Amino acid sequence: MKKKMLSLVLAGAMTAALLTGCGDSANTNSGSTADGATTTEATDDAAADDAAAETPDAESSDAAQTTGGEGGTFKIGGIGPLTGGAAVYGIAAMNGSQIAVDEINAAGGINGMTVELNFQDDELDSEKSINAYNTLKDWGVQVIDGCVTSACSIAVSAKTVEDNIFQITPSGSAVECVANPNAFRICFSDPNQGIASAQYIGEHGIATKVAVIYDSSDVYSSGIYEKFAGEAANQSFEIVTAGAFTADNKTDFSVQLQQAKDAGADLVFLPIYYNEAALILKQASDMGFDVAFFGCDGLDGILGVENFDESLAEGVMLLTPFAADATDDLTVKFVTTYNEKFGETPNQFAADGYDTIYTIKAAA
Prior knowledge:
By secondary structure, the chain is α/β, with parallel strands linked by helices. It has helices at 87-106, 126-139, 150-163, 190-203, 219-232, 254-262, 274-286, 329-342, 348-363, and strands at residues 9-10, 15-18, 51-52, 73-80, 114-121, 143-146, 166-169, 183-185, 209-215, 238-245, 267-270, 292-295, 317-320. It contains nine helices and 13 strands. The strands form three sheets. A six-stranded mixed β-sheet has the order 2-13-12-11-9-10, with helices on both faces. A five-stranded parallel β-sheet has the order 5-4-6-7-8, with helices on both faces. A two-stranded antiparallel ribbon has the order 1-3. It starts with 8 loop residues before the first strand and ends with a helix.
């Protein structure tokens, strides 16, 4: 059997987006957590065409082989948070992946095989992500679509490399996610986000004094902050405070916000996830701290936080590799299909999940 290695090339550039309170966003009440595949209409290609697959002569996992022959089943296992604090990410990635699976099956499958997607919930917990992987391995998984978040993806990659199974994370951006030769990613990496954020702020003159609030216990957040701080030395602004928090203390940000206010910060950089960001925006408003906020892909989903006052997100800036309002045919078709099936506008995690499945198809 011929073995094929996946090589992902990020051709698209990150863009800065502006959140508005009236915008659509995924929420934790949408989507399903069913193990099997569902059916939607078919299209011909991926919407966000920024990831390409190549098949060099090097050997890798048996999982990407076209085993089973025509008429068989090609099993893809997904892992991500479908419940809990980061469910917006996982549900969107699962939904985007499922749309791609349905389209590919409607067009004849992968090398004549029907694609089956089994998406498991890891609740944003590394140990549970390994349990999810073991469940998928028992099911006979051939390729892992996941994990959706960095820490979980890193944990699972230690297992997939032992089992010689392809792993492609749609959105795990930490450098360590792809440290092993069997692991690949669709999205940009944390260093990209940290550097690009600093460059955008500096080159566009958005701020002169920047405060940072980040999660020192999270590889995603701390990784972005490290590269942001390094690039800030080359830009026209200064970092006046850097307030850290941890997973055990992530509800009260009054100290970090007061430090930023006292230092005269005119922008707060938030390389964190959307739940914590929502709390920070609310607490800043309550203390009368009128300041600009700038985040990365982790902020995508903030408008779907339960009981969040969307007006607080007016003017918040974030980096994103996907714009749902783009006018190219592929994006329009993807957004339309997603909206028809799930009743909402897809975020970047949905687009990443969609592209992941098409990347697997291209390499198979």
